[in-house]
Specification:
Pfam families: Rick_17kDa_Anti (PF05433). By secondary structure, this protein is an alpha+beta fold. The protein has helices spanning about 1-15, 60-70, 75-100, and strands spanning about 35-50, 105-115, 120-125, 135-140, 145-150.
């Protein structure tokens, strides 16, 4: 029985760790092959923040089931029923806490200034790119979600009539 409880806990942890991410390096399937709006901007400020974890209920359910099974094995029939209920409640609380912790992300708040002078703030998970004040960036907006990425180097356009 102990091995079963351990196995259920491991499965729950793996499921929770596979939850959604806000990483700018990961594109959601629904965003692939969609036209995105792109805006040029300049970074004004970057600061680290933490995106709080979510509680979808999966952790609570998994913890509750695990706690109920573990508690029901205690003592006789009556004691097992009471311990099963208490185990379910404790397991649900612990499962929610594990889910919230597992889905918490280190992120950045990036404040940018658009070419028209407007300022915007975007919070996104830390990705492979680093940003500093003064860096040229682009804001890519798809389906209402915006991410910040480094602006690509642009070669100067050839003058009209040149033989280049």
């Amino acid at each position: 029985m102990s091995k079963l409880i351990t196995s259920l806990s491991v499965v729950a942890a793996l499921v929770l760790s596979a939850c959604s991410t806000t990483s700018p390096d990961v594109v959601q399937r629904g965003d692939a092959q969609r036209l995105s709006q792109v805006q040029d901007a300049t970074v004004l400020n970057v600061r680290p923040v933490t995106v709080d974890g979510s509680q979808s209920g999966v952790g609570g359910v998994a913890g509750g089931v695990t706690g109920a099974i573990a508690g029901s094995t205690v003592g006789g029939r009556r004691e097992g029923q009471v311990a099963g209920v208490l185990g379910a409640v404790a397991g649900a609380v612990i499962g929610n806490a594990i889910e919230r912790s597992a889905t918490r992300e280190d992120a950045l708040e990036i404040i940018v200034q658009l070419r028209n002078g407007e300022r915007r703030s975007v919070i996104q998970a830390k990705g492979a790119e680093t940003f500093n004040a003064g860096d040229p960036v682009i804001l890519v907006t798809t389906g209402g979600k915006t991410r910040v990425t480094r602006a690509p180097a642009v070669a100067p356009a050839a003058a009209p009539g040149s033989n280049s």
